[in-house]
């Protein structure tokens, strides 16, 4: 059985099988990432973008209030 793994054809078949398995794993990982990115883009399109103006104004006002309070203290 030890001589079987010294055969170049068997080693080449093993390398090809490992490469095939790695590429299949990478393809599945890329597909999962694409599905997550697609659902995130739909959330941004339907939930975040319609409110983006109001969110920006609210964050700006909050920043102005925090800045006004922190800079108006007596030192």
Helix and strand layout, with pairings?
Layout: H1 8-48, H2 52-71
Tags for this model:
75 residues; mainly alpha
Task: Describe it.
The structure is a single chain. The protein is elongated, with a radius of gyration of 29 Å. The mean pLDDT is 89. The protein has one domain. By secondary structure, the chain is mostly helical. It has helices at 8-48, 52-71. The longest helix has 41 residues, at 8-48. Helix content is 81%, strand content 0%.
Brief account:
This protein is 81% helix and 0% strand.
SSE ordering: HH
Number of DSSP strand runs: 0
The 3D shape can be described as elongated
How many separate helices?
A: 2
Counting helices, strands and paired strands, the structural category is mainly alpha
